[in-house]
Amino acid sequence: MKNNPLRAAVLTFATAFMSVSLFQSAGAYIYNVPGSTDFSPNEEADKIESIVNDGSVIYASLTDGVVSFDVEKVAKLDLSAKASMKDYIDKLEDNGMYLTRELRNSVTVMVKEADLSEYTEVAIGYEELNKLRNVSNLRFVFGDQDTYITIGNSALSALADSVDVFRLQIKEVYGTYSVRFLDNGSHIIPKYPVDIRLGIPAEHDKQTVYLYKDDSHENWGGQFNKYSGSIEIATRYSGEYNVSSPDIVVNDIGSLTDFEQQAIRFMVARGYFDADGGRFKPDYLLTRYDFAESLVRIFFAQDDDAVCSFTDVDTDSEYYSFVASAAEKGIAEGFGDGTFRGESNVTVEQVLALASRTINNKNGYTYPEKTDEYLVNLKGDISDWAKEEIALSIREGIYSRSMQLDLGRSITRKDAAVILYRLFMIMNNIPEPVDLINDDIKPVHPRSTPWTTTNIIITASAAVILNAAVLIIGSVVRKKRKKAS
């Protein structure tokens, strides 16, 4: 075919136009600082984390079922993510806007080849663990995005200091996920020294995770992630994990608000509160025993091997493992005389203080600078030691003034369930993904957005129009040549 300068020029223009459109639809991740009137600290924190974490992805290979990945690249991605987050925070602060919690970045290792019908193993040796000890969160995603494990920074650091190799195997059989920690000799370790977070497929937020081990099973709870279609828990136990929809009957909360009923059913379904015989007893007062059990379950901190020395807690008590676990984890404390006083009631102030300390320690939420602004129109006296905590609980919505609770009074099971439900949601926050596409790193959760769809349509339309233009112009040229001849 002879060269046609006109056709070449048109095609060059078409290619250039399409390249610009594709570049726009697959541009690099950017963070646009909102206007001051649109600024919401938590929404912006979620957005920044989603943008940065969706770009912190590498791909692994499998050799005989063992995951192989680039440790150096993980460490570099982690440093880059932290730098990006700092840059975004600086941009906000330059515009007089400040976040109210620390940002948490995560590096994801995609194990696309994983076939979980056989055991897939993550093995990280001593030298690799030391290179990863400062990584904030390391996540391994197996096959599709709905099955994963996450090793947090405290766990990575502890492992680097205590083991020669970290080994974890995961396998799925008929919807049950077998997870086992192994030592150097490939012996199963029933209880590992650190927690990992496990995400396994689920269908909706009414489901919960059951852990089967040692010929027994426990309702382990969990938080549903509608974006990945998973339910996530924290655990250190080798065992079988199964998602189930428990048949929950609570027949004494019909007079409560829809939100209160939602919170109570959620907490009961996951085993964080009980409802013996279908009765939740919403107006009963919360005891220290009940509070300790709820907290241990919410924090995934139950340890059947834990021991405590409280003089008034018998080893054969149904609450012993919860009290012992709470004491060992620093979740709950006893009194100076060596007692726990489990039958005593808990005050509203104490529940709110614990909730606020939790999101401060575990999620990096900062205490308000102007505490008094949040402590208006409250019922009851506030202890000096609790003012910061109460202010934080109000700012983050753990406590709503509309509840009209006397802070010094004993709290009911209903109000405790609502407050702890809100605490759980904040602790296990799953932000909505930001709809952005990166041109050289695929997001963990690829999504179609109105913007990318529009660009695809524009690009495709441009290609059709410009190709049509080539044909029309070519036809005109040929006619002119015919006339000339």
Description of the molecule:
With 485 residues, this protein is of the alpha+beta class. Helices cover 38% and strands 18% of the residues. It is built from 12 helices and 16 strands. It has helices at 5-25, 41-54, 71-94, 126-132, 153-162, 258-269, 288-298, 320-329, 348-363, 387-395, 413-427, 450-484, and strands at 57-59, 61-63, 66-68, 107-111, 120-125, 137-142, 148-152, 165-173, 176-182, 188-189, 191-201, 208-213, 216-221, 223-225, 230-237, 239-244. The strands form 3 sheets. Strands 1-4-6-7-11-15-14 form a 7-stranded mixed sheet. Strands 5, 8, 9, 10, 12, 13 and 16 form a 7-stranded antiparallel sheet that branches. Helix 1 packs antiparallel against helix 12 (450-484), helix 4 (126-132) runs antiparallel to helix 5 and helix 9 (348-363) packs parallel to helix 11. The two termini are 21 Å apart. Residues 5-28, 436-466 and 479-485 have low confidence and may be disordered.
Précis, in short:
This protein is α+β, with helices and mostly antiparallel strands. It has helices at residues 5-25, 41-54, 71-94, 126-132, 153-162, 258-269, 288-298, 320-329, 348-363, 387-395, 413-427, 450-484; strands spanning 57-59, 61-63, 66-68, 107-111, 120-125, 137-142, 148-152, 165-173, 176-182, 188-189, 191-201, 208-213, 216-221, 223-225, 230-237, 239-244.
